[in-house]
Amino acid sequence: MTTESAAAAVQATVYGYPRQGQNRELKKAVEGYWKGRVTAEALQETARDLRRANWKQLADAGLHELPTGDFSFYDHVLDTSVMVGAVPARHRTAVDTDALDGYFAMARGTQDVAPLEMTKWFDTNYHYLVPELGPETVFTADSAKQVAELAEALALGHTPRPVLVGPVTYLLLAKPAPGVAEDFVPLTLLDRLLPVYAQVLAELRGAGADWVQLDEPALVQDRTPAELGAAARAYRDLGGLTDRPKLLVASYFDRLGEALPVLAKAPVEGLALDFTDAAAANLDDLAAVGGLPGKRLVAGVVNGRNIWINDHQKSLTTLGTLLGLAGRVDVAASCSLLHVPLDATAERDIDPQIRRWLAFARQKTTEITTLARGLAQGTGAIAAELAANQADLASRTTSPITHDPAVRARTAAVTEADGRRSRPYAERAAAQRAHLRLPLLPTTTIGSFPQTTELRTARADLRAGRIGTAGYEERIRTEIREVIAFQEKTGVDVLVHGEPERNDMVQYFAEQLTGYLATQHGWVQSYGTRYVRPPVLAGDISRPEPMTVRWTAYAQEQTAKPVKGMLTGPVTMLAWSFVRDDQPLGETARQVGLALRDEVVDLEAAGTSVIQVDEPALRETLPLRAAGHAGYLAWATESFRLTTSGVRPDTQIHTHMCYAEFGDILQAIDDLDADVISLEAARSHMQVADELATAGYPREVGPGVWDIHSPRVPSTAEAAALLRKGLEAIPAERLWVNPDCGLKTRGWTETRTSLEHLVEAARTVRTEVGTTA
Ligand code: GLN
Ligand code: ZN
Question: Taking a C-beta distance cutoff of 8 angstroms, is the pair 85, 140 a contact?
Answer without folding.
Answer: yes
